[in-house]
Amino acid sequence: MNKKKTTKKTKTTKSQDLKLELQESKDKYLRLYSEFENYRRRTSKEKIEMIDSANKDLLKEILPISDDFERAIKSSDSDNVIDEEGINLIFQKLRGILEKHNLKKMEIKVGDDFNSEFHEAITSTPSEKKLKGKVVDIIEDGYLIGDKILRFGKVVIGS
After folding, report:
1. pLDDT in tens, 59-70
2. CATH class, 1-101 region
3. Alpha-carbon distance 82 to 63, whole Å?
4. In sequence order, what are the residues at sequence separation of 6 or more whose Cβ sits closer than 8 angstroms to the Cβ of residue 149?
5. Starting at the edge strand that comes first in sequence, how are the strands of the sheet with 135-140 ordered?
């Protein structure tokens, strides 16, 4: 009789040990799986950020060309030999490419309140009371990529 009890105990103990080992294996698997998912998400996010960073650098280098086009269009008059329509066409193509990459020009107007989150004050100039602390002149437009600032708008403020 003693032999049967020990055999049952041994079988029960082995069964419990196997169940425990199976549970531990499941736990290890779940942890490993969740760690892998976290790694996959993190590397995917890093890859997207790296691409965005490369785009930002390229767009920053292109912005001065866009600024030059705007200045050329503003300064040209009907007496100039410059083909204004050709310049406008090239400028519109450049603008289209920049907008395709989610680049937006900040809306800055003379008379707007100075906002240090979007504007960079180049200098201040004496002005009327109503223009004190407001944008008096826009030196260089600011740009956004999505909701992030690529370049601050450079402005002159009234003092």
Report:
1. 788 888 888 877
2. alpha beta
3. 22
4. 117, 118, 142, 143
5. 119-125, 153-158, 135-140
Among candidates 69, 154, 145, which has minimal Cα distance to 108?
A: 154
Structural domain boundaries in the chain:
1-101, 103-159
Domain 103-159: CATH architecture, name and number where available: Roll (2.30)
Do the Cβ atoms of 94 and 105 come closer than 8 Å? no
- Cα–Cα distance between 91 and 111 in angstroms, integer? 27
User: Residue 16: helix, strand or coil by DSSP?
Assistant: helix
Residue type for position 115? N
Long-range contacts of 90-97 (CB under 8 A, 24+ apart): 91/66, 94/62, 94/65, 94/66, 94/69, 95/66
Beta strand 103-105 pairing with 148-151 = unpaired
Average pLDDT over residues 117-146: 86
Query: What is this structure's pTM?
Result: 0.55
